[in-house]
Amino acid sequence: MTTSARLEGLDFARFIAFVGMVLVNFTVAMGAEGQGSFLATTFVGALEGRAAATFVVLAGIGLGLTANKAAKNQEFNHDFNDHLVWLTTKRALFLLVLGLLNSLIFDADILHYYALYFFFGVFFIRMSARGLISSIIALLVGFVIMLFTLDYDVGWDWKTYTYKNFWTLEGFICNLFFNGWHPVVPWLAFFLFGIFLSRLSLNQIQAQRQLFIFGLIALLTVEGLSLMTLALLTGAEQDLLDIATTEPLPPMPYYMIAGMASACMVLAFSLWISSKAAGLSKTVGFRLCNNIGRQTLTLYVAHILLGMGTLEALGLLDGQNTSGTTDDAVLASGIFILVTALYVWAYTKFFTRGPIENLMRIIAG
């Protein structure tokens, strides 16, 4: 598979993750979790926390591929390493500012966390595969230790899912590194896992098949272990029950492994579609999906400002005396994605990158 095909596979994976993210965020924003038909609630519930995790893994893969390409061209010397660190730092600062602005209207923003994943992740770019795996394990174990030694509930109002002290220095640091929506510990592990995956032979069908099978087995295993552990801990305190959860809050090892497994499956499927399903990959629909995947930064902001803004104007957000269901959220997500597709189809006739992607290039290089 050519580099172009591999990049298209990553774009398609980003598209899948974007659709999942919209479904989950609209469901949460509408207060529709667990309400509605069995099919809709089960489907959206299975996506919760997994779409965002896939995005972070893909970000790590992207950075890793950049470094790999330089290494193959014998460009990865001290000067290139300094350049990559500086470029990544500038982009991280851009994402941090954008994310903090977004946090003013959307508490569950992920962009300001993304900034830290890139900032710390770039220093792992030359680490060995064994070192990356060891670091991932350390982050997972470290979070468990933090959970049992620190107060995970500090700052949270769990009834409204708001973080009271976010805009204080102590609260911001605690949220960013420990008990926020996507804390650096342990979420940086997803980014490092992406760097690890970038070193595999992703262009080979056999590797793609193995990656998908590994992801499926790991996902089924961890979900099964979670159910067994929860059954054994019936009646135990919540802190012990949290150990066995595959829910994103708190992000315990079972959840983290499930997130990595899901990302492996999405990545393998997307790479296979791009490399082998030639007839499908040349269709207008497939190219449109890839173009959506190339604008996920712009579309992430759009789904909050425009998507949730429209839901609020229609009185459909949680707390507006609505009785929305997951089915309603799925319908709203479908309409938003359709509008998104129409916008991207028209926009890409004139421009290659999305508006915010272009802005980041201009400001941060």
Automatic annotation (TrEMBL):
Q: Which domain of life is it from?
A: Bacteria
Q: Which Pfam families match?
A: HGSNAT_cat
Residues forming the Heparan-alpha-glucosaminide N-acetyltransferase catalytic domain are 6-210
InterPro entries xref list: Bact_Transport_Assoc (IPR052529), HGSNAT_cat (IPR012429)
> Which residue spans traverse the membrane?
12-32, 52-71, 83-104, 110-125, 132-150, 184-202, 211-233, 253-273, 297-317, 329-351
Swiss-Prot/TrEMBL keywords: Membrane, Transmembrane, Transmembrane helix
Instruction: Quote the protein name from its UniProt record.
Output: Heparan-alpha-glucosaminide N-acetyltransferase catalytic domain-containing protein
